[in-house]
Amino acid sequence: MGFEAISRGAQACQFIDQSKANIEQINLNIKSFQLANCTTEISESHKYVSLTDQRYDIVFFDPPYKSNCYDWLDLALEKLLKPDGIIYIESATKIELESLCMIREKKTKTLFYGIYKYDR
User: Fold this and answer.
1) Looking at residues 33-58, what average pLDDT do you find?
2) Taking CA 40 as the corner, what is the angle to CA 67 and CA 85, rounded to the nearest 5 degrees?
3) Could you tell me if residue 49 is inside a domain?
4) What are the two backbone dihedrals, phi and then psi, of residue 109, each rounded to the nearest 5 degrees?
5) Strand locations in the chain (E)
6) pLDDT tens across 60-70, in order?
7) Structural domain boundaries, residue 102
8) Could you give the number of structural domains in the chain?
9) Mean confidence (pLDDT) of the chain
């Protein structure tokens, strides 16, 4: 999704993944596409969120299905999103947080996904 955002005009993209293999593949794609505005970091997402001061206009939140990443989604929203920022979320179950204002939401047989605004 990050590459799609760059192709549609995003100024920069930072990819975070705990898998070294995934990051290596992303780095190959960055090099292949000759993108100077993309960075990568190998990190477990909760650790990254806890330690970073970086804020983003858009966050793509797509953790492994049936993970407990959603338990700390409020923390991620509070720390990562700029005011007026939006978050795209994929999940095996519907995400219901009072702090999220749904912009668009869809469901497939196995997936809920949507774009939300964080209501601080």
Assistant:
1) 92
2) 70
3) no
4) -65, -35
5) 13-17, 38-42, 56-61, 81-91, 100-107, 112-118
6) 887 766 666 66
7) 54-120
8) 2
9) 88
